[in-house]
Amino acid sequence: MVDFWQIIQNAAVEIISPTTAAYALAALGLAIHFGFTGLINFGQAGFMAIGAYGYGISTLTFHFPVWGAVLVGIGASVVFALILGVPTLRLRADYLAIVTIAASEILRLVFTTNTFDAVTGSADGLSGYKGGFAELNPIPPGTYGFGPFTMNEYDLWLRIVAWVIVVLACLLAWQLMRSPWGRVVKGIREDEDAVRALGKNVYFYKMQSLILGGVFGTIAGMIFVLPRAIVPANYATTLTFFIYTVLLLGGAATILGPVIGSIVFWVLLSAVSGFVARAQAVGWFPGMSSVQAGQTRFIVVGVVLMLLVIFRPQGIFGNKKELAFVK
User: How far apart are CA 58 and CA 225, in angstroms?
Assistant: First the structure.
């Protein structure tokens, strides 16, 4: 018999999980790139990888404190954005998407290669870098929460930090999009030639947008690895596709949309995964292997995304009039 209550409990945990917060922050960075500026960036997984490896390598190899490791990761993401943006931001639409996805894959393969195994851990990745963050925890040891939200002091501390960062990033993005800078980047999304005719340096604004959204993705990458090890396979192109799913689900040109989209995405993914796995175990799907059952959740997410693009392309909170790609 399928335990539906257990499935609901496991799905509810994802509402406040660090992974949900990391996806929300990365999707907010993509909202700045795609939703507000019109940059089709398929390399957000690369920015997340830089954040994860920048933090992990700085902590393990160079023994930096937490604040130093965070600054290293952010600095590396700015350099990556400059290297990526200088030759590519004059490209448009599909060409920019191809370049960014290729750059992200190159970065992942560099982290995977055996040449830098002593630093990056190659395909095995990195672990053992959480001590500095745990030492900053002011919460006394013990168990906190209730029901499915029961957790130890480290998990509670991580969730508090992760969601505070998400809230601060949303406030920053909200203020920026209400400012003259935000109005310029929205104008670039709609018609960059018109903005250029008004005397604005379109290339410079695009670069700023790429850096800002990339920094959000980098910090998301740090949050993403604090509950787990750093494994290069986690930063494949599917990660960027999932973040785009979160963004489109909540609303591309919105601030709150990526947050709600991330929560809905992970709750749905967890619920479908739990249901299919348990249903397959009790024989509801004869002939289906456990591996096939595990992949079913991605099929469901793909169907949901297709239906979303067809029937509500602006997402849950989006305004259809603001999205250039649906015109």
Answer: 14
Instruction: Give the DSSP H/E element, type plus range, for residue 151.
Output: strand 151-152
Q: Which two tokens stand for residue 283?
A: 């024989």
What is the rounded distance in angstroms from the CA atom of residue 317 to the CA atom of residue 108?
33
Distances from the Cα of 147 to the Cα of 21, 163, 265, angstroms: 21, 20, 22
Report d(CA 144, CA 138) in Å as an integer.
14
Average pLDDT over every residue of 45-50 = 97
Write down the pTM of the prediction: 0.93
| Segment 54-91, tens digit of pLDDT | 999 999 999 999 999 999 999 999 999 999 999 888 87
**Dist CA 124 CA 293 (whole Å):** 26
Q: Report how far residue 28's alpha carbon sits from residue 153's, in angstroms, rounded to the nearest whole number.
A: 28
Number of domains in the chain: 1
Residue by residue, DSSP assigns 183-240 as HHHHHHHHHHHHHHHTT--HHHHHHHHHHHHHHHHHHHHHHHHTTS-B-GGGGSHHHH
| CATH code of the domain covering residue 33 | 1.10.3470
In the DSSP assignment, the letter for residue 252 is T
Q: What is the CB-side half-sphere exposure of residue 283 using CA atoms within 13 A?
A: 1
**Domain span at residue 316?**
4-326
CA dist 50 and 55 (Å) reads: 8
